[in-house]
Amino acid sequence: MAHRTSISATGAILTGSLAHNKTRTLLSVAAIGLGVALAYAVQLITGTAINELALGIQVLSGEADLQIRGARGGFDERLYPMLAKLPEVAAASPAVEVDARISGRDDVLRIIGVDAFRAAAVQPGLIAEPADRLDLLRSDTLFISPAAARWLSVGVGDVLHFQAGLREVPLRVAGWVPMAEQQRIAIMDIAGAQSAFDRLRVVTRIDLRLRPGTDIASFRQHLLAVLPAGVAVESPATSVQATGNVSRSYRINLNVLALVALFTGGLLVFSTQALAVVRRRAHFALLRVIGVTRRQLLASLLLEGALLGAAGSTLGVVFGFALAQAAIRVLGADLGSGYFRGISAMLAPTLSALLICFLLGVATATLGTLLPALEAARASPALALKPGDEERAFVRLRAVWPGAAAIAVGAMLTALPAVGGVPLFGYLAIALILVGTLLIMPQLAAMFLRLVGTPQAPAPQLALMQLRGAPGQAAVSLVAIVASLSLMISMAIMVTSFRDALDAWLERVLPADVYVRAAAAGDTGYLAPEDQTQIAGIAGVRRAEFFREQQILLDATRPRIVLLARNINLRDAQQRLALVSTLSSEPTSALPPLWANEAMADLYGFGTGEVVELPLAGKPVQFIVAGVWRDYARPQGAVVIERDRYVALTGDRTATNAALWLSPGSSLDAVSRAIVHQVPGGEHLEIATPGEIREVSLRIFDRTFAVTYALEFAAVAIGLLGLSSSFGALVLARVREFAVLRHIGMTRRQIGQMLASEGLILSAIGLAVGLVLGALISLILIQVVNRQSFHWGMELSLPWSTLAIAALVVLALSTLTAWVSGRRAMANEVLRAVKDDW
Amino acid sequence: MRRRRFLASTLALLATPGYAADDYPEVVPGRALQFPRDYGSHAGFRNEWWYVTGWVKDSNDLAYGIQVTFFRNRPRIADDNPSHFAPKQLLFAHAAIADPRFGRLRHDQRAARAGFDLADAAADATAVWIDDWSLKMSDGGYVARIAARDFAFDLRFKPTQGVLAQGDAGFSRKGPIERQASYYYSVPQLAASGRVETAQGAADVSGITWLDHEWSSELLAPGATGWDWVGINLSDGGALMAFRIRDNSGGAMWAGGAFRSRDGQVIAFDRSEIEFAPERQWRSPRTQVEYPVVMTLRAGSLQCVIEPLMEDQELDARVGTGTIYWEGAVRAFMGGREIGRGYLELTGYWKPLKL
What we know:
The complex is a heterodimer. Helix content of chain A is about 55%, strand content about 15%. In chain A, strands 12, 13, 14, 15, 16, 17, 18, 19, 20 and 21 form a ten-stranded mixed β-sheet that branches. A six-stranded mixed β-barrel of chain A has the order 3-4-8-5-7-6. Chain A has a two-stranded antiparallel sheet with strand order 2-9. Chain A contains 28 helices and 21 strands. By secondary structure, chain B is mainly β. Chain B contains one helix and 23 strands. At the A-B interface, helix 3, helix 4 and helix 6 of A face strand 4 of B.
């Protein structure tokens, strides 16, 4: 019998709730759905990209136990026979990897030059079985992965043209790379790669398969001791990790944004359910009286929340999948961020990601229901059955200390460093401060309401009285507004600050009139010394500075850092770099100077005044850090050294970029034309003015943040949904009150004005708290999260116009919603509502 | 265009017909073999091999066949590439042990481009190696060290007789056109001793083996599909070598051979004096290829029956060098009496060697 009761009670609670709150139920489902959709889409996209990256590394490293890696430009090939002859080594497979610029395009194709005989013993998946096996050895043939072939629309027999130096290298497609389905790569003979791309006498990696029984760890230690500076030995798993690290901060930020959207959805469920539960207090009390236990009531309400969550999650995963597909089609697997170039994306959904996102939605909705459900279960049926008891439900929310404590702890957490490169405490601080503020919303609301002077007009006066009388209900409806508003504002401030800082930085770091790049992309283009002489000698060029950019390896578990050799000295560094700190006096040591970017200072401890070591040409060279500069381009770390010294140490006179100052009166067009026509291979050069570079950079910035904007928009949408839903709930709950007001002679219009005033006052409070909280969160984002994720230092800029527009929209919308809800509530006959209760 | 089909696979390389050899030195008659120079590698020529085959036995009198072959090939595809990795010379190696207890060959292979001292063939003496596989002259003899997947050997070979120049003083014709030829010499009655390791354990062995060294730029005539070759160390100290090049119909397109008596008298056979007559076919259970593993050989007035140590001495080298052939230890009988032991090679029975 008891069992039957419980079932029918559950049924009654559920049907009662869902039938009464159709609109709000749908909104809650939609809000949870949107959050789940975003979370799932982000998972799908980054999961796919990362998975492909890892697979790519697996194909490239095959059965290797250890991998030797160094500077992007490679290391001495004589290391290969030395390692191959070690008794522990069963097979050694050398490779020359280049990111070859495809002629006439801004794209690169990763070409891996291998010795097919050696690769067959370590990475058999790379070696094709062509009709003519000598194609594996020819210097002018390459084998292309199916993904790259689709991307470039080429087939066997076609000839691809690549840029090397300022020359063009034609390579015939001789077949397919068997094991690389999704990676855009090509395989060719190592000798061909060395000579075609000017990598003679160097290799970029050696994969080692060890003899069975070799202790890999101790052999690795042994190798570390004998390898030249700048060359590291690691397991392939470490390479996977290092590659993943490049994009990790970006991925984590995307995930956090999706969680934020979900969190806002959860808050919406909370406020909807809180108000709905309050509205159904009498209903629940009746159920209790007829024998439903507290436990049954609680379980039923939680089940209700879970069902909402499940419905939302179902919609969410479907929508999320569609969203991910659309995003990949429009933006590519890297969502326009540039982190996952060279991967052709095909969504590979995993059951685990799907389940996690689904359960996340269910859990969020259930948690959102928990507090209201507990309150409903706790209420004494006798009291709850009396009218006017609603506000009692919120008494529990009046304790100040939990919220204050959360804010205080959050503030303290901002001082903690990143955990494994992830600004974990920064995110936690934001979450705590946000939740803390939401917890003290009742007090804040009461405080604000006390501060507002009582107006004379009856409608606003009544509105204020009503709100003062029921600050708990007001606070609950404010929660969703404050949360979504503050998050939106914080992101707007952060993005604006970053964009302004980037703009100012670009202006500072581009002092020349024209910039020349050897290749639009990749690492195969360069300016030979004679090209540099040609460019410097062109009529109209007053001054030419050349620099060499390349990547070197300092730590095998991290991505390579950028080494820039350029015309710079201690005196003019301030003019060339956006220095944020510099040596106060001339260095006393005889060590050559080096300037590190902020990421370098953060990640490797290259602070001003430190003595550091760089591997150059296989030898460690000591430098003194003469300054730290701001850099938004190279979050993996970058250092600048003097070019003369670089040439002396390495013998490398090539350059990758040139900065040109024109003599007065000479035309930019004429100089550009002269460069293209007078320098052999000049058509490969990319020539740009600072204005163009700035434009492109800002466009890339905007594209990178396109996803951020999209998520931000979603959060706002959910928040606004919450806004109208909360007001609707609040207003509908007060039908009795309106009946009484009508009874004592208030006009509908006056009641409408009263509700509009309530809406205005509430949203003004929400706006005020949201703005302050948003600014606070943006400070944490800028000073802690961004700094720890990307090592970007920047100043705060406020997007005044955006903020003003957002404020106006919120105020107008909430006022309108309150008014419309009121009209709807009053459409029912007043008398019936009064009769219901008396 | 036909050069395209020229494969990196060893035997196939040697057999690809119809290319112009203009870029390679031509094999011409009348050039006397010069030692020690001709022990070494002839890097200009397209193909070259050093081939050691023979019978050894352990202390329990158990007989094994052993085979070590190093091939050198000059593909002429990257001669102007300045890279140290440029594949100017390719090296391949096959090694096999015929152990009757095992019932089929244990074999393995290696392949590498010459360079970095990891693989090469020296010019001044026999010294050819790929990683830890090597065949090198030492102390007036040869040493072969092979560390294969499931066997290993370390053998020393000591000549007991002089070099046997094949064909016309080392000029060995292989086809109807004169330049289809090789420079070719053998070292029969090569005394072997050393150690062999298999899954059954290690054993000290000794025996009699045979070395062939041959180099050429154009070996096979167009239409040739494969060859049969046999080299027998006769029990009385003599030596017998015979080969035939087969055409599409299975008939002999060319043939040749030589007999050297124990006292050093050499008789060279021309194509009409050599005849291989299959006596029994054996079908490989793995590849279904049929090989004439028992043959009657007529060389001039000499006639003997060649019988294998075991039937299954097929060598499937499709993975490495792209072909399947039969290469095995054999006995020679005359009137039911064993007169010598050696090796038989049967190529082109799977597919014509040009592939």
